[in-house]
Amino acid sequence: MIALEPVIGIEIHVELNTKSKVFSKALASYGSKPNTNINVIDLGYPGTLPTLNKEVVRQAIKVAIILNCNLNKVMHFDRKNYFYPDVPKNYQITQSRTPIGYDGYLDIEVDGETKRIGISRVHIEEDTAKSNHINNKTLLDFNRAGIPLLEIVTQPDISNAREAMIYVETLRQMLLYSEVSDVKIEEGSMRCDVNISMKPKSSNELGNKIEIKNIGSIFGVGESIKYEIDRQTELINNNVLIEEETRRYDDKTNTTILMRVKETGNDYRYFPEPDIPYVELTDEWIEEMRRGIPRMPNERYRDYLEVGINDIVANKLIGNKSLSDFFEILLKNNVNLINAANILTSDVAGYLNKNNVSLKDTKLEVDNFIKLLTLLDKGDISSKIVKELLPDMLANGTDVEKLIAAKGTKIISDETQLTTIISDIISNNSSAVIDYQNGKDKAIKYLMGEIMKATKGQANPVLARDILINILKKQ
Amino acid sequence: MSKLLSLNIVEINQKLKNKEIKPLDLVLEAFDNIEKNSDLNCMITLNKEKAVERAKELESLEVDNLLFGIPIILKDNIVTKDLRTTAASKILENFIPVYNATVVDKINEHKMIIIGKTNMDEFAMGSSNQTSYFGPVLNPWNKKLVPGGSSGGNAAAISSCIVPLALGSDTGGSIRQPAAFTGIVGLKPTYGRVSRYGLIAFASSLDQIGPMTKNVYENALLLNAIVGLDDKDMTTKELEAEDFTRLIGNDIKGMRLAIPNYYLSEMIDSEIRNKMIEIIEMLKRKGATIDYVNIDYLEYAVPLYQIIALAEASSNLARFDGIRYGYQTDDYRDIDEMYKKTRTEGFGDEVKRRLMIGSYVLSGENAKQYYEKALKVRNAMRNSFVKIFKQYDLIIGPTTTSVAYQLGSDHDDVLKSFLDDIHTIPANMTGLPAISIPIGFNKDYLPIGMQIIGDYFAEAKIYQLAAFIENELKLVLNPNEKEG
Question: What is the pTM of this model?
Answer without folding.
Answer: 0.91
